[in-house]
Amino acid sequence: MKKSMYLTLLVFLISLSAFAQIGGIENSVNDVSDTIRTIFPIILGIIFLVGFLFNAGHFFGENADLKKGITRVLVFVLIAGAVVGIFTYLIGIVV
Fold this sequence. Notes:
mainly alpha
């Protein structure tokens, strides 16, 4: 009887510390995901701006090639859209 009481007490104490650790990790993951959610649109906007500036030479100037410029911008938008989709999916899983 005494051994089972000690065993029960030991299991109870171990489980309490495990739950405390999981709660701490969950709170830090939520903090990090909130930070990423606020910063990600700004970074994505900067990437779009830089991508457009690199492709702007195809729309203007002496050697303007409208078809090549539109194709490159569309490829860039598709890649950025895939990155946003993957990011949204991953954030949805974590939280």
